[in-house]
Structure prediction request, 1488 residues.
Amino acid sequence: MTLFRQFIVRALLGDRSRSAVTVVGMTLGVAVVVAIRLANTGSIRGFATALDVVAGQTSLEIVGSGVGVPETQLADLAWLRDYGRVSPVIDRTARVRAPDGTETAVRVLGVDVLRDRPFREYRLLRFTQEGRDLRPQEFLELMLDTSAVVLTEQFGKRHGIDLDTPVELIIGDRVHDAVVRGLLLDEGPARVVDGQLALLDIAAAQLLFDRLGWLDRVELQLFDADAVDPAVRSTRIDEAERAIAARLPEGLRVQRPAQRGRQVEQMLAAFHFNLTALSYIALVVGLFLVYNTVAVSVISRRSEIGTLRALGATRRLVRGLFLGEAAVLALVGAGLGLPVGWLLAWAAVGLTSTTVNTLYIATAATVPPLGAGDLVLACAVAVPLALAAAAIPANEAARMTPVAAVRDADRFAQLGRLPRRAAWLSLLLFGSGAWLARQDAVGGLPIFGLGAALAVVFGAAALVPVLLDLVRRLGRVPMGRWLRVEGLLAHANLSAAVSRLAVSVAALVVSLAMLTAIAIMVGSFRETVTYWVGQTLQADLFVATADRAPVGPPVTISAEAERLLASHPDVVALDGFRNVDLTYGPDSDLIILGAGDFEVLMEHGGLLFKNPADGRAAMRRAVAADAVVVSESFALKHDVAVDDQIDLDSPQGTRQFRVTAVYYDYSSDRGLVVMDHATFARYYGAQRPSGLSLYLEPGVDPEVVRDELLDVVGREHQLFIRTNGALRAEVLRIFDATFAITYALEAIAIVVAILGVATTLLTLILERRQELGMLRLVGAARGQIRRMVVIEAAMLGVLSQGVGLVVGVVLSLILIYVINVQSFGWTIQYHLPLGFLAQSTLLIAVTTALAGLYPARVATRATVGDSR
Amino acid sequence: MSTLHARDLRKDYGSGDSRVEALGGVSLELATGEFVAVVGPSGCGKSTLLHLCGGMDRASAGTVAVEGVALADLDDDALTRLRRDRVGFVFQFFNLLPTLTLAENIALPLLLAGTVPADAKARARDVAEHVGLGHRLAHYPAQVSGGELQRAAVARAVIHRPALLIADEPTGNLDTDTGQHVLEVLRALNRETRVAVLLATHDPIIAGAAGRLLRLRDGIEVPAGDPVPAGLGSGPGAPSEEEVGAGR
Amino acid sequence: MSARWVVGAIALATATVMVAQEPAAVPSEGWRQVEAGYPLRFPRDHGSHSDYRIEWWYYTGNLSSDDGRRFGYQVTFFRIGVDPAPANPSRWAVRDLFMAHLAVTDIETGRLLTAERLARAGVGWSGASVGTLEVWNGDWRADLDGESHRVRAIDGMFGVDLHLEPGKGPSAHGRDGISRKGSEPGNASYYYSMTRMPTSGRLVVDGEEIEVRGASWMDHEFGTTFLEEGQVGWDWFSLQLDDGTDIMLYQLRRDDGDRDPNSAGTWVEPTGASTGLEADELVLVPGRRWLSPSSGAVYPVEWRVELPSRDTHLDVVAAVDAQELDTDASTGVTYWEGAVTVTGQVADRAVTGRGYLEMTGYAGRPMSEMFR
Prediction:
């Protein structure tokens, strides 16, 4: 231990710049991994917490197929009371416009307080004259009026709302005048999402949300579910669940409330998985730095190692010393990475919230606090990986004989068989990458696909010494010619340090290859989406409500609003899109069941078909039949082809539908099944649409019509009417927001990698002081030295980017054709974003050159006195 | 005008109690084409004197002028230019860049001075022929012998036709025959190009080749009649304390 | 009359709260007032009268098991109108609220078990049918089996499941079944009782089923507005004497301590023939008092009943003192309702009997406040 402190710790402290950069690299790597993990759990947790708080004491819930539970069926479920208390629930979202002018989305629970109180702890911030709590009946009578709404104390305080304050409740497009009849104390469900909860009487909720005759679910609190022992409780719930499932009529299911959380988790799994995978790139780059640092310390301290060995240090001890160095770096990195990661997580949540909210669930994601578990995880990830990375140089140190070390063997003679071995390794990795890329997804996650990407990445890393060797052999003449003496010297210096540079360059190559691949994938995806949007967004105007509900009951457009819109003389056709969530398949995946007017779609276009080519004919066959068209991601994920029959749950039980076509869709990776609205109405009942497409008379200005329509619907309806162009722009805005985090993660990895290159150069320069002094002696000016180092750095950057571009293209193929298909099920048309790649190449060259400035400054400090 | 004029040169290292005087007031003058050897035991101040004369380091006191230009008046860039154009250096360790060929190593001063590469190459070839390395031009330092390395270093030192050649133990790392050979080369160059040579050595045979001797001990000049300084007889190739110290 | 007032009072009271907020809402608006000229007929009038705002079905009785354990029980179903014609077409819109009280007195151990329910009709999980006896609140229900009544109310570990034969059949109170509660013409209710219903079935106590027999008393009363200002509470008796006579008595107490003139009773002969008792025909003298530890209210648990016109002197004693109900989760009124034993003389003949006693207005807010 003393030896470790003297030999390793002091050296680390002595060589501050390199230690610092390594720690920074490790810190960033761990931080990014932690940040993404926190952000991922944060987005789920926001939802899960809300779920828990709202579920309260609910043991089980009865849910329907997509459209909810029909009341008529509920009347026959009186036997549920034998199991426990029963509470019907309407669970929706709406907006509250407070007197302070703010509009806030709130969760709306429509309940029968008489039944519901045992389920959820809530008390009113309101007492009778005698100072006692309101009795259930009094509570109920406060809410009986359809204009009555109960908000939360927290919300009230924030928006200056008190008892009897008038507010506006915006449900779908309709603006309702309401009066706050009660404020809930800050406990139980009132704590959901910053108190953004509104309580309505269930009757009022049904009326306002257009749900007469329907319930969103029926909750059940088992009589004997209050056992103290959670295992007993769980067993009882399981038994009840089985018994109830056996008795429920077709079209209804019983589940635990947490099931909804699991479905959402499942839905987000692919998105989160890919983010997590991406976050590990930064860590991998950080590990390259650890490798590099340990390798440098082994090489630069050969004679010291030799001395130690000569004095009787065992191989074990030497190996242990250097592994210890790696462990120290990793531990410090992990320790610093946690808080940094926590901070980064906020940024990550900010970057991912648009995506999650738009595409998956509306949730106020927060960053969970750091726990001891996170520290353990960070260390458990960082330390073993760092040890693995350091194993190679540490072994090399351990193998050193005392003589070889003391002899101070030629620093430059280490190349040896390295390029050849690296070439074989690289070939092997590329080969296995090719094999892995052909394997299927595992449980909806592209495990092998990522394995393939990883193999290619490491293959590229292994290729770096080969390429550096090639540059060494072939680069001299052109460099001397183009960059004069500085180029010649830079080349000479790099050639002398191939084995030393290989690792840091490899790290940079890996990052750049990923950047290139991601840029290509995103670019291709964007092109594809742009084309798809152009093909499918055919209507002139699109009508939507202010609220979005990516999961859960849709926010709908009222009949009055639809009638008012249709009455405009320039509106030729109007198509309403209805959608509900449905569970599908053995894993109960959440899919989207949509319904539109196929006649209108056929006439005005709107879907881009993958199979069969004649989509219109396929759609025609689906009209007035038990038939559907499905999105590509649905077809891929559930292995469904044209003419297959699929089973869909409906309020009438499970029904078979024939698939007549598969179409391209990029709006959701959950998989869409679309049927004609008449078919939908037959099985799922009448439901208001959640969006409308308006087709206008040719020649009229959509902007003008839009403004007129907004006037027509007036203040009572709050609608978003977007022109075709505006919606396209919106789609691309959401698209870009989705990939912002991708670039952010990648940028961090590149920063770390460039830091790595800079430190490596710095190390080399410190070792070359003598040469530099000699150069100064024979007449090299400071400027020339600086230019030489900057050229070295830029050369490494350009080389890395060159390799990165090539490998990136290969990786992008894996991303697009393997990982994407396995995770999301999208067809992406390959497209090279040449402009972006050119820009990034220039940027990398400039950035690495800039990163060379500091080592260059150090280099110019070498004096002729150093020459001896 | 003399090629090198040094008067009362002093050099101290450190400060206060730990101050060490390396050179205690040495004066020296070299005319064009003159060959002067500085001799003395390890630590006598030979190298320090050479460094000050070659503009590698600045004196604590006293003046140095190369071809009438006082080095103290020059800033770093001007000093660099002066070294690059008017001074050549040869050291005990050959200090060639391992990844450049001998030709490139020899041409380096010209290349750094901005000479067209083709011209520099041609001149390097001439100089290399001159020192007997014509057949080794394309070789890397690792591929040639020590004597050849030092001849290449000498070639590099004179390729730009300097007025002054500073040689610090140029044969210290070579066996006797090879050292002799390198010395021949130096002498020939001295004769043919009229370059003034200031050479430090503790080998009496090498010193004997010089036109004039400057004996140093403990940083000051020792009159000619004094006994030969101890250590002069130490064998070729044996590293002096000073050299080991420089490696730190 | 009776317990059921409690509910009326509450309905009115909360309505009053609402009135304070929205002056337009008058609780009686849209509901029918009690007027003369509606003859009660059965089984039709066992059913619900949804035009009227307030209605209850009320079963009490004294039962014993084969091994001699004695029990009292009470099962009450209330229907309180909230809005005769809700604008909201939702099934969950509240036209009526349905409440129910269940109490079982284990006389030997002196224990009172109680449960209560409050629900809206919703998808028909609570309700009351029109035209026949069928009233239910969740799985508690009372309905007809031929002419017999079935009363079933089990709450987990205790409850009743009883079969009640009609016995003497219904006896209408007041004039033609209209029982006056106040001086205003509308402040009255339709009111009849089935005063002696031979009862058999089972009780559930602590999860144990006990076969029981005995006699029950059923009240059914409906109307729209009942009470008036100044009426604080009441004392109500249903007594079944061993000579076959049944007596219903009530007195309204005023806030000035006087008895309200709208107090009355009914004398039911063993044959079923009944005669009304006017306020001046009944003297009710409170005796020993019991302090409720939970509410702090003091109830007279022994009464001296004098009916001079009938030459009747009865001592009514609570079978168990602690028979107070706290119905915070439904009606919100704390009252005393329990089994009593009777001893005394009718025209010099010694009689004994059983019965039920209800006393309101002793705890919590003065009833008078709840009327405003």
Observations:
- Chain B touches chain A at residues 47, 51, 55-57, 76-77, 80-81, 83-85, 89, 91, 93, 95, 97-100, 104, 108-109, 111-113, 117, 142, 156, 160, 168, 243, 246 (CB under 8 Å).
- Residues 227-248 of chain B have pLDDT under 50 and may be disordered.
- Chain B is about 35% helix and 25% strand.
- Strands of chain B lie at 4-13, 20-30, 35-39, 61-66, 69-70, 87-91, 164-168, 196-201, 212-217, 220-221.
